[in-house]
Amino acid sequence: MLFVIGAFCATYYRTSLRRVRRNARDDIRREMALKGLETDHESLEWINSFLVKFWPIYAPVLCDTIIASVDQVLSTSTPAFLDSLRMKTFILGTKPPRLEHVKTYPKSEDDIVMMDWKFSFNPNDTADLTARQLKNKINPKVVLEVRVGKGLVSKGLDVIVEDFAFSGTMKVKVKLQIPFPHCERVEISFIGRPEIDYVCKPLGGDMFGFDINVIPGLEGFIQEMIHSNLAPMMYEPNVFPIEIAQMLSGNIDKAIGVVQITLHSAEGLKNPDKHPGIPDPYAQVSINGRDVLGKTETIQRTSTPRWNQTFNLIVSSLRDNIHIASYDWNEYRKDKDLGTALFALERLNDEHVHENLALEVMEGGRARGIIHADVRFYPVLEGEKDESGQPGPPPESNTGIAKFIVDQAKELDGSKSLIGQLNPYAVLLLNGKEVQISQKLKRTNNPIFPDATKELLITNRKTAKLGLVIKDDRDIAADPILGSYQIKIDDMLDLMAKGQEWYNLAGTSSGRAKMRLEWRPVALAGPSAVGGGYVTPVGVARIHIQSARDLRNVETVGKSDPYVRAVLSGVSKGRTTTYENNLDPDYDEVLYVPVHAEREVISIEVMDRQSRGSDRHLGSTEVKMTEYMHKGPDGEYLTHDEKSPIAAPLKLQGKDVPKGVLNFTCAFYPIVGVEEPKDETAELDDARGSTDIRKSSDVRKSVESRASLDKKAVNGTADEKAADVMKKLDAQEQTQGDVNDVQVSKVPKIKLTAESLDQYESGLIIFRLEESQLAAANCHVEVLIDDFIQPAYSSSRARSKTTNFNETGDAIIRELDVSRITLRLVQKVDTKGESGDGDEKHVFAKLTGQTLDVLKQGLYQTVPLTIKGEDGSTNVVHVNLRYLPIKMQLHPSESINNSGTLRVEVHDAADLPAADRNGYSDPYLKFHLNGKQVHKTETQKKTLHPVWNETFEIAVNSRTAAKFSVECFDWDRTDSDDLLGTSVIDISKLTPFQSEEVHLPLDGKSGTVRLKFLFKPDYVAKIRQGTTTRIGTFAEPGKVIGAPVKVIGKVGKGASFLTKGLRRSGTKKEADNPIPSIEEPVSNGTNPPSAAGRALDAGSITPSHRRQASMGAASISPSIAGGVGHGVGEFGTASFTIVSATGYEGEHVQISIKQTGPKGSKRVHESKKAKMAGEGAAHAFDEHSETFRVQCTADTQFTVHVKDAHTFGADKDLGDGMLVVSESGNAPTTVNAGQGTVVISSTFQPSGDAGSLISSVNSPGSRRNKFLGSVRGRDARSATPAE
């Protein structure tokens, strides 16, 4: 046993010792190798062995590539006294270059790789060559042909360079990065001067040529010339950088946006001469003092010139400075420099707009005056990144930067040259105006243009045309045209999408050109832009958001608060209601998204609402419009109305596994083509784009590079010469087969007039905001339509009281004859799009009117709209309107007839079953709408035939989908209440504006309930759903646009949701009120029963679909905002007089009146203390001192608060009541407030100059005083107009 233990220990010892020795040996070798890397060199024989086999294969290809590239460069650099320069031969030989050794630096930074490479290229060293390699050896040789003379009288001379050798040491530094291609930059530099040897024979060729290096002193001179040129580029410490990442991404010198500079004026300009006189100043704009990019007009004899001219500069970097140089114009001598003002573009990184700048003019270190200017930066619009982090398609815009590139031409017609070889160059055109001329090449019929590229600012893409003219350079005679081509930008983008690169030239028997176009949209504003880059949609996508299931929960406590939004090109176009604390919301809402092209992709995102900070993503899915947009034979888009259900999994960026499902449908409805009056935007742009330069007699330099824009090159500003060129190009354009390939049949159009507007129910209203005179600066103009919570459009911020927006937006109109449009001024835009949630604290002026009447006044013309502020201020906004009908039949559930206010009179019940031992019951009723209790009656004791005589009103979002029911209970003091019976009420069959009395049988043992209904159609805006919902027992059931929710008559405990915030803790009872009966509406020409009030056909309605308040239908929008205004009824002045108060026990009763609005309650009047006239008598008020006026709308609600006022101590609340202006007439109105009543008399006087858009545009016709006035039946309208 002892022997076995000893053997085991010995074996374990030997094994452990062997392992320790091996590890120590490895550590020592590793440390020695690491130290050796810093001092020793590593042999590279393995790569030299590879080059010996690879060089014979690769060298011929490399030589051909070098000849093609260098020959093109030499052709453009030929001196004038020579006919041409060409590289005839370039041979690197059969012996490859050799890498001697490499040294690494292991202690460099983690993302830096640094090495020293020793290399040599010595083809004449044959010591290491085999016999076979010596037999097949080819020496390096370069032959350059120099042709002296002109044309036919010319002679080519060969310059030969051969037997060259090269050796040196190069330091290579590689900067690594995490994203692909994982190599950001490579820097190379020579350590010391490399050794260069060669044989040069400039004359005599191979046979008679001699090496010029034998001439004494010449070899050293040439060597010094070579080193002096290479040293600043790549001799240490100088490095030659190669931006690998930028080269692969294609972002080298790419435009990042447009800088717009407006030169207003200057003051105090001084001429430094001894006898200066009064200057004639003008200014020039440039980047870093280089090429002049813009020049103002010359103002004669003043030191305070006013220019008011705008220049647009295309920039690729914000690291430069704008130079504004001022000069004194002289007629016969050189203009005098008055000084230069600088603006650092780096300031635009933080703030894109800098207005009212006072830039100091400096000359010789002294101040020479001040230039007043505005500088704005409009960045290139980028597409939203997808789940993989790749950018999506950019948003559609009518303005942007077009990079026009002509790479090369082939097979040019050489018969136009006597020698068969041409000297071609390219001329790039924009709307017939020359914008770029390439270098002139020599003796080639297949030119490769190195600089035929141009970045152009396009202000109207749909009319802009690009042109190419290739000419043959002739020294004396006029240059003949070898071929031309002209194409619209949109057509060229379509052809490029199909993969086309080559275009056959027109006006020639042969020849084609390779052209490319890069389009980068820019939301340009100001006088140069046409509509702020707005692109007219071709149709509308209708997205019906049905429900979401099993959503991601991102909350620590509780559940997510989800809502759904539709995003197009990174801009939110609409959103749904927020469902709080719910992972399985049922939205059933419709969003409309205007689309502009088949390639667009709509992103449907589910978001988690956050009260603070940015909302969080819960997942998203995409809708590709290519699946829904298809053209017919006539070129028109076809309607796609299948509405197939889609259950899309929700994916989150960075998460591989989707979480949650979104159920929705999608349909596409095209827009009807409309013949519009002649578009005057080109003429307007011409007048504005020239910016008064035409007034100056000076010659303006035509410059429009990637950092500039010459005003004469902007659309529509071509001169007479350009017009002639345009005519020729237009004539030849008809013969271009490429353009004909993208041309489609002419789409039929209709002629739309103000009289024919009401024939088209649904459409798209397009509005252009122009000049405005505002009462306050730093505000936004928002446009809202109907019950959409999110504004259809929010303008950019007006930084001054007088602003020219020049912005265009659009909005969907579902029912034109009942639609309402609202313009409002806000001081702050709600980026969450929820300002409609009863919060309009930033709104200071608002104007509402009928969309149809506004369209009739502003169709194809500019009209001023006057918006009255809350403080009485006047704001005028000029708006130009268009209307495009949509081929869509509106679903009945989306009609205004499907939503509104339901008024219910609870009369009585009969033959109820007995639930108590005494043979009677204590009945009361509960009313439920969509599972939420909306009203509860009082309990009638000991009766089987109760009489309630109560009335209440509720807002109904969708009659077709509403589940309205009544339950009858027997009240018990100690036990739970017994259910006596229920009945379901079908409110979809109610005729609008007609009261109907019904007897509802209960499903219990017996009994019927007698009710009376009156349904008034109106838009209902739902804001939020969930645990803090405003729909339910303890919340406001909804907001009726133009008709507030109210309780009429006796209100029991079940209606506490209506008195929340109106009643104090001390009031538990309410006095009985006489029950007003529901009268039939009287047709007086302004509110007929048939106005949008025809009964819905129950058979044609799908009960599973209902419309709720969607928030969207917006186009290009700079920001997301929200909020429908409160109280959009008729605007005017309400007069109130507090008469008396009865039934209160307090000694000194005081009454305060508060105006209820979206901002909350605002006290508008507080009465004096009134003493009781006698025991049990009323408290009387002085009618003269208790009369006051309030500017409001006809449907504004007021809260009447009664309290017992005490001089010392706290006041005692006696109750609250509600007063609605629209129900107030000249007769006194009794308001129930707590245990007593208050008598208030009131009158309402409509205002003719506020609250209505129609009055602001001076409508000559009769005004639609009522919401549904003069509304025709639906039969007279056409959803798809006849062509």
UniProtKB/TrEMBL annotation:
Indicate whether Cytoplasm appears among the record's keywords.
Answer: no
Q: Show the SMART domains listed in the entry.
A: C2 (SM00239)
Instruction: Note whether Manganese occurs among the keywords.
Output: no
- GO MF term list: lipid binding
Q: Which residues form the SMP-LTD domain?
A: 40-245
What's in the GO CC field? cell periphery; endoplasmic reticulum membrane
Q: Pfam families given for it?
A: C2, C2_TCB1, SMP_MUG190-like
Chief location:
endoplasmic reticulum
Membrane spanning segments where? none
Which GO biological process entries does UniProt record here? endoplasmic reticulum-plasma membrane tethering; lipid transport
Q: Where in the cell is it found?
A: Endoplasmic reticulum membrane
Q: Which SUPFAM superfamilies match?
A: C2 domain (Calcium/lipid-binding domain, CaLB)
Domain of life where this protein originates: Eukaryota
Domain C2, by residue range, is 240-358, 381-503, 524-638, 882-1002
Name the keywords, alphabetized.
Answer: Endoplasmic reticulum, Lipid transport, Lipid-binding, Membrane, Phosphoprotein, Repeat, Transmembrane, Transmembrane helix, Transport
InterPro entries, A to Z = C2_dom, C2_domain_sf, C2A_Tricalbin, C2B_Tricalbin, C2C_Tricalbin, C2D_Tricalbin, SMP_LBD, TCB1-3_C2
Q: Where is this region: Disordered?
A: 680-699, 1062-1114, 1248-1283
The molecule here is called C2 domain-containing protein
